[in-house]
Amino acid sequence: MRPALWPLHISTFRRLTLVRLVDELGDWLGEVALAVLVFDRTGSPMATAALFLAMQFVPALTTPPLVARLEAFPSRISLTALNVVQAAVFAVLALLSVHFWLPAIIVLAAVGGGLAISGRAISRAAAAAVVTPHGMLREGNALLNIGFTAGAAAGPAVAGLVVAGAGPRTALFADAVSFGLVAILLATTSGLPDVRGHVASWLARLGEGLAYVKERPQLRLLLAAQTVAVVFFMIVIPIEVVFAKRTLDAGDAGYGYLLASWGAGMLAGSFIFAALRRVSLRWLLPISTLAIGGAYL
Length: 297
Prior knowledge:
The chain is an all-alpha fold. The chain is about 80% helix and about 0% strand. The model has no long low-confidence stretch (mean pLDDT about 85).
């Protein structure tokens, strides 16, 4: 494991890893609070599904042009600004938890989701730019995955307890505070590399990306398989709150524990991925995918 931890010697990478962890904890805090809030206020699985579509599907369409524009600015400025705006969005969502209005919550959830994915893309690219010159890209990715999954394991459990004990409003305000902390961490990070694309419209860059994939059959197959897999993996996401609260009668805390159990498995998988750095991805990908299918069954 010692070579796998080498990227942590780089101070900028350490800061980005910490940012990823805090971001993930905050994301779960907001996601659990919003899911519980919408389901409790509406009692509708369809409304809950609409919330998750707003948070995850809509941003997939809006993020590429946003990231393309943000790449024109230094990474420290764009990442700090993204987190400041996210803090404001979740502060407003906290206020809406008292004065509930579903359309406004759906719209703000979509905005927050788009900002979160944009920030994740830029910070991940910045982290890659830090470790690539040292030939430690896979090790760096493994460490970022550990930070991501540690947040995914702890975040839902903490969120479930906060929501159950103090309510969605407090959890949403806490999420706003977490984004403020991340903004401070990024604003004070030295040596953060700029990740800038070439000067072209995002549609032109999308076309170039598609052409690049088209010329590489192995990459094309990998992306196609990933797309299909993600569709099936994500089917359970909108109904987990219904499953936990209505089917299992486990309450808000139970919903958080259910999500935390997924995160605990992801954390274990991240450590395994880091340890098996010499094992071919050709074997790791199908085996891990089959394991997910078995868990769903």
